[in-house]
Amino acid sequence: MKYKITVVGAGYVGMSVAVLLAQHNEVVLLDVDKERIGLVNSNKSTVRDVDIERFLDDKNLHISATDDAVFAYKNASFVIVATPTNYDPETTKFDTSLVDSVCKDAISNNAEALIIIKSTLPIGHTAYLQELLGTKRVIFSPEFLREGKSLHDNLYPSRIIIGGHCDLAVTFSGLLSQGSELDNPAILFMDPTEAEAVKLFANTYLAMRVAFFNELDSFTLSNGLDAESIIKGVSLDPRIGPGYNNPSFGYGGYCLPKDTKQLVASFSSIPQHLISAIVASNDTRITFIADEILKDKPKCVGIYRLVMKAGSDNFRSSAVEFVIQRLLSSNVKVIVYEPDLNNKEFLACKVINNFEDFESQADVIVANRKTSEIEKLGNKVFSRDIFGNN
């Protein structure tokens, strides 16, 4: 049976789940951005993701985009909310206003649809919305996606978490499973509050691993030790494993920084030390990296790419951005090479799109992740990338 499914928000989450479900259903993407709408209706992706682009080119997908909310919600069996919930440092919580507004709008236009929130929420917020809206037809289903690999992670899900128990929730889990490439992906049903906790604790654990191996790397760099040998020796223990062990300038991107801070806020009066330490460790690493770059007193520091990882086009909350801020506070000239950025400046730093011009002006080139383009530059490059992966 084919369903009409409305996906609100055409970013990484919305675009990937829309393409996944459009293999077997009619999917309408609802967004306010005219450019995004035009891209989708021209069979183009709104985000950089090779699998999404391939599916749009090769598959017979039933997908369209609109800014007409009434049309989008009409006759939809499922409404998936994939709008941003940015962290507000003043309230120390996620700003859920956009999610709340979408849920209210969806209910008012279609009281029969099941609303599935994919946006990351504070623990307990779905239950609050159910009470506020007077319905149990709002559930939470977290996503576990990597930027640049968002459709891949939907096609091969580590698990499908459904924060709801109604019949439509079961049907929705089947649609996600049907769209995947796995025969029997792991599906867990739980209350929405537990599902919200899964998302925040999972991302905070990943941030903890990043922070741990970054601190290990800081120790080796300070003591003249071989970080690669030590990390390999540690990671061969099967209880530890090799994942998330490649040193970086710090965890960044859209999810980990805000999710860790939200989890700290969620603990409130509950005693804890580890979660707060993860956030503090990341700030310490960024300062340490900036200090290491400044040791040789460069006159001009070149920042090679603002993106956190290969295959991504997202600069949001990049650790590199905070390294730049530290360098600028030390009155060092900073230039940026970022071919995906059309602006002439970033954080008051000159943006250069030609690599040869960039390389000739920089005394040292700082790269969170190495590429073949800079490997040949040898000691001119400062990077803590050991294993060449994200």
How many β-strand stretches? 16
Counting DSSP H or I runs of 4 or more residues, the number of helices is 15
What is the level 1 CATH name of the largest domain? Alpha Beta
Strand percentage:
5-15%
Taking Cα atoms only, what radius of gyration do you get, to the nearest Å? 22 Å
The gross shape turns out to be: globular
Unreliable segments of 5+ consecutive residues: none
State the CATH topology of the largest domain: Rossmann fold
Percent range of helical residues: 40-55%
Mean pLDDT, as a whole number? 94
N-to-C CA distance = 39 Å
CATH superfamily of the largest domain: NAD(P)-binding Rossmann-like Domain
> How are the strands ordered across the major sheet?
3-2-1-4-7-8
Describe this structure in words.
Helix 9 runs parallel beside helix 12, helix 11 packs antiparallel against helix 12 and helix 12 crosses helix 13. It is globular, with a radius of gyration of 22 Å. A hairpin with a 4-residue loop joins strand 5 and strand 6. It folds into two domains: 187 residues, Rossmann fold (3-Layer(aba) Sandwich), CATH 3.40.50.720; 184 residues, 3-Layer(aba) Sandwich (Rossmann fold), CATH 3.40.50.720. It has 390 residues and is α/β, with parallel strands linked by helices. The mean pLDDT is 94. The strands form four sheets. The chain has a six-stranded parallel β-sheet with strand order 3-2-1-4-7-8, with helices on both faces. It starts with a strand and ends in an 8-residue tail after the last strand. The protein has 15 helices and 16 strands.
